## 1
Amino acid sequence: MSDSTNEIIPGLGQKKVFKIIVLGDSGVGKTCLTYRFCEGQFLDKSEATIGVDFRERTIRIRNEDIKLQLWDTAGQERFRKSMVQHYYRNVHAVVIVYDVTKPETFHSITSWMSEVESHGLTKAPRVLVGNKCDCGSPSDRLATVYAQRLADRYGMPLFETSALLDSECDNVESIFITLAHKLYSHQPFRVVSVEGELGPRLVTLNRHKRNTSNDNCLCS
Amino acid sequence: MESINTDSESSDKCNINGDCSPITDNESKNFNHAKNIDDISTPSELKFDEEFEFESFEIIEKRKDIEKCLANPDLVNLEQWQNFAKSKGGLICDKYRRKIWPLLVGVTQEEMTDPPSLDELSTHPEYNQVVLDVNRSLKRFPPGIPYEQRVALQDQLTVLILRVIIKYPHLKYYQGYHDVAITLLLVCGDRASFPLLCRLSYGPGAPLAPFMQTTMQPTQHLLNYMLPILRRADHGLADCLDKAGVGTMFALPWYLTWFGHSLNRYSDVVRLYDYFLCAPPLFPVYVTASIVLQRAADVYQCDCDMAMMHCLLSRSLLTSLFQQLPDDLPFEDILVTAKKIYDENDPTDLEAEVAALEKREEEQRKLDEERMRRRQEERRRGAAGRGAGRGWWVLRRPAHRRAALALTAALLAIYVYYRPELFR
């Protein structure tokens, strides 16, 4: 248990938390990708995500436990208009996924980007992910050069991967780890404060620009 | 209540993968947990109603009553069917459901027509989205179903959905509609499920109609009843949810699919459908509140954090990876509780509270927008400032500007004084 030394104050998260929202058209593999990262295996029978689903995993950066919260969203447009909006609040990073075998999912990236920007996330680290690179023949897949051009335009790194292939596991890993490192070096970010905690684990609420009011109450 | 007590002391523990659900102290439960995850790849986790369950004397008697009524259906009024559907055990088995569900929503034999072929419908703009969702609905099919049969059923499902949205073009398909459609299809077959689904989707008081509007706003509005309903039953619990800011998203798949998307056990799903088919349209939201009540102990133990609370409420303690509820929720009790709360707190009694809640959310949204606008402006100004050179920011303020002007004038005067030849 990565967390077992902290049980002194039950009910309080003490790790740094990075919230990452995963966006993209329906069926591009958002759920499989987050599942692969959080559970280390391919999700065989994935269902449509309705609304928003949530997964998380703790990683270590420079000997510090970091909790990555992944918000896996529904791809259908009707969900993002009024409902997913709420989840953009307090997001630290964005992953946009497309399906390399379906050009239309790639073309939607522009609208996803403008959505991200409309939520004031222009400064947040972003990553573009072309998923399902195990599918089809190379000629069926969108050429990397196009994707790279678009990624460059938005100034974000591009990853091409497959949530299905075990051999691509490291690549999936590196998507989120890259983001985590970027966020880690990008301080300040949200920290869950624990009053009265002593020693080197003492953390303070730093001057964070984003609203943290929802995340720090100590209700019992 | 069984599901509630298992993890009372472990709310802060996370497993290695960072799975945020409270894990149980019980090793054997953990073992089951792992086993459940592995089993997900096989459809055998779906427990259809062929599974033998011990039937109580009550249910055996009820069977006799239902069979008696089905022998002479013309002599039975709607109220009697509704009583069967709502009372303990519901309609018991699919053999009865197949006949009684159409009666509950008033579908007649004449309406049960043969479906068109899939090819005729494939030009519909929603075709791709529907097929995408139907292809991913493998978990909803009977265990061990032969491949060909499953594919045939999936085609029937696609046809069923498209038929409805072609008949009522203003109704929009939503992800989750396929979960309702497949439940009807598996119970009633492709001929009867079409008029049944039509009844649920279109017309005054049609329970699925609000979900099928252009936006999700009407759905959001109805889900907003959940917190006030909960508050009437347990004030502290409602406060807990409210403080965590968990919203209603955790219950969205429940409501949109009448729990079809979120329950592992087929028998639980159809039992709930028995009830919902003859309950008021908002009743599933009361059931939602009732489930939260059922899990009150967990909720009180949970971190007051949006993510944690969302995670706890939206899924099972045992198979905590998907949008799925615990297998052992006592639905008969939950339905009784929901009914009791409904009788005591009609939706019209709650309207004022819902309006207040929505007003508060609107204000919060405006605040957020304002904050975002300001932040963007600051950033823009920051960028502009950097572009124009850092030194000039001093001149922005009038006092600084005046001082700078005076200083320039003085320096000029001194210069002119010492270099008078320039002005001769």
## 2
Amino acid sequence: MNLNLTLVGQAISFAIFVWFCMKYVWPPVMEAMQARQKKIADGLDAASRAARDLELAQEQAGKQLREGKEQAALIIEQANKRANQIVDEAKENARSEGARLLAAAQAEVEQEVNRAKEELRAQVSALALKGAEQVLNASIDEKAHAELVEKLAAEL
Amino acid sequence: MAGANPTPSEYIQHHLQNLTFGLHPDGTLGFAHGAKEAADMGFWAVHVDTLGWSIFLGLIFTFLFRKAAKHATTGVPGGLQNFVEIMVEFVDQSVKDTFHGRSSLIAPLALTIFCWVFLMNLMDLVPVDFLPALFMAMGVDYMKVVPTTDVNATLGMSIAVFFLIIYYSIKVKGVGGFVGELTLQPFGKWMMPFNLLLEGVGLIAKPISLALRLFGNLYAGELIFILIAIMPFWIQWALSVPWAIFHILVITLQAFIFMMLTIVYLSLACEDH
């Protein structure tokens, strides 16, 4: 075996073959590998994002729960306060109503007493007039003596 | 073969001659000078180039994959790891699709076969005179750089697969089951010798066909490259380049077929009837 132009011919062929591989074989292979890399990277990204989202969501949920509890406590407190207030108001109302009723009853009683007094006075004057009429056994001018009887009644 | 101008047939024969080391008929050890001396050595000789290149390529494969495995991350894989992962996923998927038993050997075996055979086939794409000329310059007369064009290499692998077939057959079915499978079908126990003949041929044909298919394809491909190489140098590219491009497909396909058939044979061996 000796070295001759065959070697050059093979070198030419090899160069063309390598060029062909570079141009048409290598890029698709590389593309497939990069696509796979990207897919994995995306997957990992998505996973870490999901983990972060979960953490955030848990945090959020905890916060909301805490806020809810606080609000509930606040509402209960307000309700208690309001209830006390209502009870107080009711007591106040009852007391004033009682006082009013009492005053009204007292006024009525006073009125009744006055009226009875008035009536009594009138009856006494009539009775006195009749008594005097019988005592004197004579007709007396009612008009002339009415003033006298009035004075008498007012002293009663 | 140191003639100034080898004839085409000399050129071809030279390229198809392995670097053989062995026992000369006169009882001395040494390299064979020429095909005649190599043939005279008979069985007790080794093809140093076949062994050397296959071991070298095997080491490349092992080293690369080991490196990728050691530096593997769970994050986004880099270039080498990405490539290795693609290979492993591909082989693993093939094994899962075909082999339904449980074995921790099959997938690594398939991966090794695929990558190793592919690398050995890949040497086919290196121009036929490059490495031989290099070794010639270093004083080595013969150098066949494609191990899979040596039937010793392909038969060596297929015999290993053959032993695995027998091992798994006996492991899964027991000695009795395996012998029964060889003798009791397809015609029942009264036709035992005939059954044995049929099944025996079927069994032996597996490694033979496995080896010869790979060897035949690659040998033919290499031979055509050599034939192209004896054409005038300025026209070689016109044939050599298309053949090389076509060969990208062939070498991948042959590596894949060798792997697939190994899986299939072992899967059959593991199947209980």
## 3
Amino acid sequence: MSGIQSEPSGALLAVRNLVVQFSSTRGFLVRRHVSTVRAVDDISFELQQGEIICLVGESGCGKTTTGRAIVALERPVSGSIVFKGLELVGLGARQSHRVTRHIQMVFQDPYSSLNPRMTVGASVAEPLVIHRVGSPEDRRQRVGELLDAVGLHPESSAQLPHQFSGGQRQRIALARALALNPELLILDEPTSALDVSIQAQILNLLADLREKYSLTYLFISHDLAIVRWLGDRVVVMYLGRIMEVAPSDDLFQTPLHPYTVALLSALPVPDPTVEDQRKRIVLEGEVPSAANIPVGCRFAGRCWLWRELGSPEQCQEMEPELSCVAKDHLVACHYSGEAAVRPFGLDPSVD
Amino acid sequence: MDLTSVRPPDLAMIDTPYRRLASTLGGLIRNPLSAIGLSLVVLFVVIAVFAPQVAPQDPIALDPVHRLLPPGIHHLFGTDENGRDILSRVIVGTRLSLLGAAGILMIGVVIGVPIGLLAGYAGKWIDEILMRVTDIFLSFPSLVFAIAVAATLGPSIRNAVIATGVVWWPWYARLIRGEVLKLKHQSFVEGAKILGAGSLRIMFLHILRNSLTPLIVQVSLDFGYAVLTLASLSFLGLGAQPPTPEWGEMISAGQSYYLTQWWYVTFPGLTILVAVMAFNLLGDGLREVLSLGRAR
């Protein structure tokens, strides 16, 4: 394959300095610029073959946009996305097709992710038809295998999507995404529209499928319980930026960014005595608009640690870089050390 | 318990595209109004297809001896000033009216649907340009435009159909564009893009296929108006020319007799009324049945 070769890093997917922004313009012929929203603002991370990386953050933090940029549904303003050594940003449509068959996406809403007029079989076979894989007979057989792999009966292929429940539709969407034997699946909150019991089934299925097909997942979620259970590594985003990257266990035991600490403090603890004493950090105020990002640390205005430390000026003047503070643990905070010694926002000296 | 397996589908409950069509027809028949509409439309179509066989008498041959007879056993709808059987003329005129209306709608759909699809899907300046052109066509009063066409190309049913079709398409372009805008950010369309589907595949297989319901409803509702428009043009002398039997042309010829020979204009007029009503009832029924099916 031709294309711009980047330095070999061994990563399956490397996102570097990715910026995605949305401009709104108005007017016919002469377009006036109205505003620019930086949905993703200079983020970098890597995915190793076979790992599950979770992208977490509040709504509007840019996690979904990041996923969409990787599958070329959004056009980045700058930065690079390298998949197996091949630069994806700026690829022509033709070449991009050849690559994108290795990267597939499963969407959040199972009710809009299947064409309501296409039978399940036709939906699952469509990737094969588009890429001209196999004869019609081969395809029928492959559809049967795929439906079986996601726990559906092959007879379902004659039915239309409206006859299936949300969980079943998400299985169909998975079968469709798996049809071309992709290496990377981008899962955009695949369970958030489902009942808790169905969520568990789908998560188990995802774990099984990863084993079976040696897949790599980029799992986008706001549900920390799922992230803890599923993820190998976690990327915490806030307002288009990465705040913290750490292996899942590290992150949940020793969060180093005050934002992560606040997020984790919202997680209920199964032990009732601990749960009773647990202090929650309630973040004040609203997330600032991505059209008007504050100078300095973008989290400072809502940061409990910043207030506790007496509002140091540094936070409002300089944007903290994402830097390595422990093994595989990256944090973007000037006072990450302080967050660690004040677990869950409590100053030990006060108690 | 194995949580990842799902019980087999109940075969009787399986919904396939074929069963959908059957259930649509079933829904139409269950509602009395749309059942009337559907049966009248079927009746009109049958009459149109078998017009020469169904018509009791020659619709064109002159018979001055029996001119302007009131309705009776031999002439159910009476006769006109040339002694021709009005019932036979109405029956034979059905074919022309339905074919003409179908032609108008076909021109409208063939021009309007691709323009609406392209405008909605491509967006940006292509959308702007196409929709401004659409607005220009929309601002023509269709009758006035048809008069202008008839004036330049000469009055004939074919020219009337073309003239009407050419001002009819903007409605379909707008309808389809609206549907495209609604559908193009749905996950299944974006999913197809990720799979590498081409624009044509996405536009026709994913978007148009899901816009067919409102289009079918609109076309069936418009069919009645197309019949009416064509009759109006013929009435004004811009469509079918005598002695061709056509509903509007018959009313036009009967104008001078309507005070004394009421049946001359009444029966062609009633036929137009019933035809327009039948298509409207069918369209309304379709809308109800199809939107119900959608909400499931």
